[in-house]
Automatic annotation (TrEMBL):
Residues 871-1141 form the F-box/LRR-repeat protein 15-like leucin rich repeat domain. Residues 712-757 form the F-box domain. Residues 661-680 are annotated as: Disordered. This is F-box domain-containing protein. Pfam families: AMP-binding, AMP-binding_C, DUF7885, F-box-like.
Amino acid sequence: MAHRLSKLLGHLSPFPSDSYTHRHNIHQLSPTFFLPRAAEIEPDALAIYHLTSNQKILRRTYQEAADRARGLAYYIKKQGWKKVGILCPNTPAFLESIFAIAAAGAVNVAVNYRLKTDDIAYIFDHSDAEAIIVDAAFLKLLDGYRKTHPKVPIIVDTDTDAIEGELSGEFDQAVLQGLRVDKEQGSQGWAGLEAQCANEEDVIALAYTSGTTGRPKGVEFTHRGSYLAALANVAESGLSYDVGRCSYLWTLPMFHAMGWTFPWAVTAVRGTHYCLRTIDYPTIWRLLKEEGITHFNAAPTVNTLLCADKNAAKLPNPVRVTVAASPPTAHLFETMMDLNLFPVHVYGLTETYGPITKGYHMPEWEDMPKSEKYKRMARQGHGFLTSLPARVIKTGVSDGTIEDVHKNGKDIGEIVVVGNICTRGYYKDAAATRKLYSGGVLHTGDLAVWHEDGAVQILDRAKDIIISGGENISSVALESMLVTHPDILEAAVVAVSDSRWGERPKAYITVRSSKSITGEDVIKWAKEESDISGFMIPREVEIVEELPKTSTGKVKKNVLREWAKGGKHDLEHHCQEISRLLEDCDPIQQESWIRHLQTGQRNTSDLLNLKTTLPANHTIPCRICSTITSLSSIPDLHRTTELEENNTMYSTYLTPIQSIEESELSSSPSTPGPLNEDGEDFFLVQHNESPLSSREGSQQPIAIRTRPKYPIDSLPSELLIAILGKLSSPQELLNCMLVSRAWAMCAVDLLWHRPLFTTQERLQNIGQSINKPSAYWNYADMIRRLNLSNLTEKVSDGTLLSFVSCKRIERLTLTGCKDLTDQGVKMLVEGNRNLLALDVTSVQNLTDVTIEALARNCHRLQGLNVTGCGTITDVSLVLLAESCKYLKRLKLNKCVLTTDVAIDAFARKCPQLLEIDLHGCEMVTDASVSTLMRCLMQPKSYLRELRLASCSLLTDACFAFLPPDLRCDTLRILDLTACANLTDYAVEKIVDAAPRLRILVLAKCVELTDRAIHSISRLGKNLHDIHLGRCHKITDDALRELVKHCQRIRYIDLAGCTLVTDISVRLLANLPKLRRIGLVKCQNITDQSIQALANPTGHPDPRFARVTSSLERVHLSYCTNITIKGIHSLLNSCPKLTHLSLTGIAEFFQRDDVTEFCREAPMEFNEEQRHVFCVFSGDGVNKLREHLNKLESNYTALVDDGSMDDEDDIEVGQNISGLLQNSVLNDNDLIDFDE
């Protein structure tokens, strides 16, 4: 019995069975256990967020991720593989493989895909990999390896967002097979795997070094060491600091030292992994601003470029950024802190599982000058939580002698560490392991000083110290000094030979965009402005376009030393050499290899291997190439009849080309057009485009003969699309089609991705092409966006028959097509499982039939706009909510039959809702809205926009029973226009629950008093727009409080607030960011207010002081105490003014010389309204300014070209309301989430 018990529980103890009872407090440590643990605790928590290779947003819960890892583990276990390679970017497959391989009892070998192909082949060969998991985009990197290892299985991951039943690729199939194996073996689940390893000292992963000075070495990560390092990172990086789960952004490559163990660390705290295939700074900033990222890791170089990106803006909440890979500068930390990126400074090596020290932030630093504070932060600090203290030992002593330097911040030595943080050694390299641990400590090779407080500070790598005239010069210190220059972006310093001093420093710098500087300027600045010693100042500074870097952002100083040896002449020689070797290749190939030489990614010896595979010279007929060689690149076209057949084919291409606008050819690197080009598609701001490379042409024969691929054919489809999208004319695009089939496919796909429907004739032509039986391409599958809103009344059910075969449409816009019925829309929806968004605004004939069809077919639907579809009922909407759980944007404006039943269903079934608009849903009551807020306004919610305008049944009870601890930091826009039953109490509860509101609309909430405004003041700097039209009980006292606390208000509407006087306007005029103000029917307003708006007295805080007014729109209709003198002053002091409304002011509408610059009154106005209408916009404002200046020559003409074609929001008589209905809320300029 005891023997059987020992076998069952043996995995919990490393000791023999007879000693188990004495070591019950021991179990084997393995980080693999973190995944099934997370899935058991919070199965529905979001584990993965990822933008896939086909540009879809993929989300997986911890239960889903654990199930997939389990399936892959059983598959690997059945194959008997003991070492499995990984060659992937930061994808869900990579993350799942890390856990699956270990759970199968195998070792993972993650390889840097940016290495040369022979290094990749060497690593997989050296590691004895028995199988390789590879991303489809990197399959070609294994060509060399597969020639010598043809029997090693390759598992390809396509990284696509595939729904159940449509899994694609060998990786997904392996997962499914593994799940079947588990089921066949009795559904043991994780219990049948090795989440709890048998021996914690076994190797869990081989992490290979970059091999800059030799072949890469495989560092052995153990289960125990990885477990402890991961837990240390949880604490040291603050992964568990935030309320709720952390949101970790994968900017660090997972292959680099196993992502510093963060795949395990983030999973341990059940955080969300935001995976990125590539580093794209605009995307990173978008995620930081919109997704609530709390943590990421990045090298100083990445952080420097991130902070310099045009999208950089101070974040509302601090983001913890673990910084390592190379010594950062104090200047970088200061820049990061200004953007609310809080640096967690760590230092480490691959041989130490990543970080081994941390610069701990001390409270007393806050009292120091900024420069000293950031210098302290830039130190490497003290030993990590699971490490013994880092030490600095003397160098130049006999081998094996370990003697510490003095802790005086001056004596230089080498950093060494011992303890749990050290890896086991190098795989199959005992000599290198002995050298690494010489003397019983791990030698880092980094030179540093040891400060009195025990903190270490790196001066340089031993090989990077510059010894000039007997003095040691730290390249790190020099680089830190150089980047404080306002025009320098990056700096790197290396030693060059000097006949007098032995060595001297030379600096390589990159310059910030739009800046200009010379090396002599930098040297002069260093002598005059810096505080470094004279012997340290570089005698030579070279400006380069880009510094050579490793895959993790470290500067390749070995390459810079080669540059320094040969100088520019050597580079020019290399470029001439490559041009000679590649003289038979196309210019793009030449340019690419020259670029690789300059950035250190290639050397001229590599060209000898390439030369034997080069094709004959060929032409690239597009404007990106200045050199055209010959036509031999175009595949031979068969003569006579075959040539005629090809001419027919190219004429088919011309069908969509001939009428395309130039703007339609513009493209982003990964999509065929700007995301927000169609204003009607309300969901287009989401980056869920599909790449054109995923399309497949039809199986029809084509006259282009199949030939071996040219190098130009190997361009990634995303890059090719980006190139083609920049062409300025249809003829250039046509020429590119002639290069090869691959080019032709991408060009045709680019044109058909979103057909342009401008006329009825064009609609018919495209419909005929789609249904043409002999077409060379399957055009129906190429159409992803179908927008017929330009034709409106010309579109009927019969029109849509031509598009029935288009079953891959993702975005369908039928706005204003009033003749459509359920029959037509249903035809397009049936069988289309790819539809992501549907806009049928004002298609009033639609009923529940259409919505039910959506629910049956479009389970991935993310956006639905049924504004004005008044016959849709709860029956279909409930079905939609139950079927479309990924719904993000929902507009039910004026769906008058919608009741609490439907809203309750959406609240409970659609947790990812970002925006919901119930404007005019008059049957919606407190019950469903309260449920909506409780379900969607959680700490980890997504809700950003909630519109409840004209929901007249809402009362304070809607908000009264919200949980007191409810806090939704994501909600930015709340519209409660005309919810007349709401009182001050409701506003107080709203501010408690949504403290980061930016746009709050309370127009026509007539019961609100000063108490409500005092509550709103608690929003502070978060508040940007506040609409208080017709809140006639508000006084100057409340507005004084609002101005005091909400200094970032851009737009305020006080229309009809009759108690407001000049006192309030004078206060509002000093708001530093005020752009728009509405004072319609504020009868107490006089010229004093206008003078205050024209000439703000200045803010008491000098940071916000401004000389001229920044106003853009001013609404003063029916303010009858205003004179032309005051308006004249306003015009001359507001150069940015583009809209001025003066309706109902006799001094203006009665003067013909003034009204000649007015806009035309709307057609629906009656005669009386037309008579008093007086609104100036765009160029009309400039003309009025010029006219008044001519009348009074003492004024200086102020002319500005800023014009905006804004919708007129003036309402006359009974139509006046707070800054003028909801049209202003649809103005994207007002909804700024980037600041």
